[in-house]
Amino acid sequence: MLLQVTAQNYKKSGYYLKGHTVIVVDVLRATSSIIWACRNGATKVIPAADPGEGASMAARMGGCLLAGERDGLKLPGFDLGNSPSEFTRDTVQGKTIVISTTNGTGAIRNMESAGNLLIGGMLNRTAVAKRAVELGNDIIIACAGTEGEFSADDILAAGCIASAIVSLTELDEQCDLTIVSRLVYESWKKGSMDIAATHHYRHLVEMGFIEDARFCLQEDVTDVVPVYNNGMIQPMA
Amino acid sequence: MLLQVTAQNYKKSGYYLKGHTVIVVDVLRATSSIIWACRNGATKVIPAADPGEGASMAARMGGCLLAGERDGLKLPGFDLGNSPSEFTRDTVQGKTIVISTTNGTGAIRNMESAGNLLIGGMLNRTAVAKRAVELGNDIIIACAGTEGEFSADDILAAGCIASAIVSLTELDEQCDLTIVSRLVYESWKKGSMDIAATHHYRHLVEMGFIEDARFCLQEDVTDVVPVYNNGMIQPMA
User: Fold this and answer.
1) Which residues, in sequence order, are CB contacts of B138 under 8 Å at separation 6+?
2) Is A153 contained in some domain?
């Protein structure tokens, strides 16, 4: 089994992705919010390419919640932003959510040709790692990055999931970014990597979302693994 | 002063680069070989976009050495490959060298709009850091990467140079990849990052170039800082 981690703006042919299990990670905050929505009983989550597509999808379907942000802030007229704390059981149980975020939902859509597409974060690290290993294909952990840039928070989360994968199976090969992301994770665990100094984390703190940031960096809070299929994300049956 | 590290395939507008000092790094082996050639008395080194351009430049100019590799191997009919050990004083003193390599020379050409373009490696880490800081602009350490992929050897070297910069000046800001590359370098120094497990290093070992790889990862062997200007690289006056 080959394990790759990719950073921002990763593009590969649909043919290549077809043979892979892809775990998309946008730990601050889109994939963490989607995991939390599924954990709290959302029936499905539909990632929209942009806010316009999201709004028109939600209008056509009716009865769903419209969520999303740009530059961290809830979009005007939307029901929810992109904070996991908004996706409570009271709010989302039994609901369909349409969501568009700056980086995460686009990253999911970029990867839709994958043989299997899982939604990963630190919140479900062991569960998503286990599921990916069970599927038996080579694995790509695809980091959403931040506005096309390398984002250390996603690399930390990728390393967190990669380390769980390594503890579950023998790898034939790991790429350089897998090695580096595992180093980032191990350093963070030991306290020698200060995630609070990194760009996107600082931005969230400045916007008043420090509780979100702390929440999203918790490990193994749930066993729920959201799976993308045919345009929608649902918790694994 | 802002310090950025960029990985593979970095592209920015000429206007943006104009205000920056760029240090191009392809530690295994192109920028290390260029540093070594300059240290050993080469008059100038001309980075060619591809082997064809290199061969025709060399033919037009006459009297120069033609160097280059593809997939690590010296190109047929070329005088030299891309091994620092070939660029001895006996071979290169007083000579012009035209060189084309798989990743490094293209990365230099990509950055030619930079206000100042320096050639960096671990061999000249302190000298190149000092020169970049003296120039007073924001700094980009541009890693060549390996065939468009993130390459941990270049990230190690970028971290090595970034750490030297940090010891010389107060930074206003460092990007996430700067933080991660410094972590890679510090981990390597402490023996907790095994560079021999990474992709390009292993490839060089398989090709029989382990001595080159070891040579290029030595720190502060020379004070020579090659500078690119108007299509050619010369040791700083």
Assistant:
1) B1, B2, B3, B4, B19, B20, B21
2) yes
Q: Which tokens hold the place of A211?
A: 């509780």
Question: For the whole model, what pTM was predicted?
Answer: 0.94
Cis peptide bond upstream of B60, omega within 30: no
Q: How far is A60 from chain B (nearest CA, A)?
A: 40
Contact state of B184 with A187 under an 8 Å Cβ cutoff: no
| ipTM confidence | 0.92
Residue type, A162: A
For residue A182, give the chain B residue with the closest CA. Answer: B193
Any domain includes B193: yes
Residue B235 lies in a domain: no
Q: Say which of A155, A176, A184 has its CB closest to residue B151.
A: A176
Beta pairing partners, A5: A141
CATH code of the domain in which A59 resides: 3.90.1560.10
Q: CB distance B183–A192 less than 8 Å?
A: yes
- Structural domain includes residue B188: yes
> What is the count of structural domains for chain B?
1
Query: Mind listing the pLDDT tens digit for each residue in A6-56?
Result: 986 677 788 889 999 999 999 999 999 999 999 999 999 999 989 999 999
- CA A131 to chain B, closest CA, distance in angstroms equals 27
Q: What range does the domain containing A54 cover? A: 2-230
Residue A86: how many CA atoms within 13 Å on its side-chain side?
20
End-to-end CA distance of chain B: 25
Among candidate residues B43, B213, B30, B8, the one with its CA nearest the CA of residue B105: B30
Residue B234, classified by CB atoms within 10 Å of its CB into exposed (0-12), middle (13-18) or buried (19+), is: middle
- Residue A138, helix vs strand vs coil: strand
Query: In one letter, which amino acid is B38?
Result: C
